[in-house]
Amino acid sequence: MTVRDVAVEAYKEALPALAASLVGGLIAGVVLSGMRAELRAVPGLLVLVPALLATRGNVYGSLGARIATGLHQGLVEPHVTSGDERLRAAATAALANGVLTSTFAAVVAFFLLTLLGSAVAPLPVLVGIAIIAGLLSGIVLTVVVVTVVFAGYRRGRNPDTIVGPVVTTTGDVFGILFLLVAVRTVLALAGVF
User: Is residue 21 within 8 Å of residue 171, measured between CB atoms?
Assistant: First the structure.
């Protein structure tokens, strides 16, 4: 197999996922542009958006890489079973890391904006939004990552090639969608909306 053959094969595997990633990013942008009222109601939320989206990519990209490595090494079977401790531990750790880093990002954003003298929503509002969005998007991302990695592997695809664009797309779309749900939920509980 030549270098050219390897490159062509890699592009064949990755191009559909990259195209889906592009479309997903545009959809997330459209949803974000429709959140003007929420962004006005929660000062500092826009500062938090990139951190929350990056968290999804980092945490769940790492989950996908762990699962792919386990598949390549024969430590994980390409199907979900209740007795698979490695898969359960990796998914639980990813979900916990996602929620914790979202919470940390909200706290840092609050103190940074306060230090800079910028308008910022109360800390419990930002933290509540981060926790709800982190938990909901984390559940969806865990299911999507495990499903796509296993399905791709069973079809003879390299999961390492697929997981990046899939996590990016899913993280952007569901991250923004669940951010909207979280903002509306927290504001409704606070009696604002």
Answer: no
pLDDT in tens, 99-141: 999 999 999 999 999 999 999 999 999 999 999 999 999 999 9
Phi, psi of 74 (to 5 degrees): 80, 15
- CB 41 within 8 Å of CB 183: yes
Dihedral angle over CA of 144, 147, 153, 154, nearest 10: -150
Q: How far is it, in rounded angstroms, from Cα 175 to Cα 166?
A: 13
- Element holding 175 (H helix, E strand): helix 159-189
- The burial of 74, by beta-carbon neighbours within 10 Å (0-12 exposed, 13-18 middle, 19 or more buried), is given as exposed
Q: Which domains does the chain have, with CATH numbers?
A: 3-192 (1.10.357.20)
- Residue 156 has a CB neighbour count (10 Å cut-off) of 7
Output the pTM of the full model: 0.85
Q: Which residue, chain included where needed, has tokens 């050219």?
A: 4
